[in-house]
Amino acid sequence: DVPGLCDRLDSCGFPVTLLHGDLHPGNAIGVEGGHRLIDWSDASIGHPLFDLHMVDDTSEPRRTELERSYLEKWGDRISRDDGEMATSLARVLRPLHHGVSYQVIAEGLETPGELDFAHEFLIQAAAALRSAQAL
Rounded to an integer, what distance in angstroms lies between the CA atom of residue 15 and that of residue 128? Predict the structure, then answer.
């Protein structure tokens, strides 16, 4: 029930936001006074937890620690329970978002196979949807 999972994620109260789309340490550079994100070629608008796909391959307890750290920044807008529910739902829906995103990116290239990662994300999405039955 993908539409139902999307509705539940939406009900957690996060606003749609600008997503980097390829957020990982290699796309952040240190500058005086902080960091800057580079390589915005995969940017889109969507659920802010969709930008955390890099943590999906991180083992526990580090993954939970990273997700909680990110959720803390939303603490004044999102309750802890809604944040935890959204995190679980986003783990399932995130690969679908990135699968569609990469399909669109690949179709816009002269050589589409160059960035054809959509199938990898869809394999992850299928596994995540199978595990989502407990949600």
Answer: 23
Structure-token pair, residue 95: 């690969």
**Cα→Cα distances 17→33, 50, 132, Å:** 24, 10, 24
Provide the 10 A C-beta neighbour count for residue 47.
22
Asked whether 23 and 51 are in contact (CB, 8 A), the reply is: yes
Handedness of CA 103, 104, 105, 111 (dihedral sign): positive
Question: What pTM did the predictor assign?
Answer: 0.84
Give the C-alpha separation, 71 to 60, whole Å: 17
Look at residue 70 and give its three-state secondary structure: helix
Report the mean per-residue pLDDT for the chain: 89
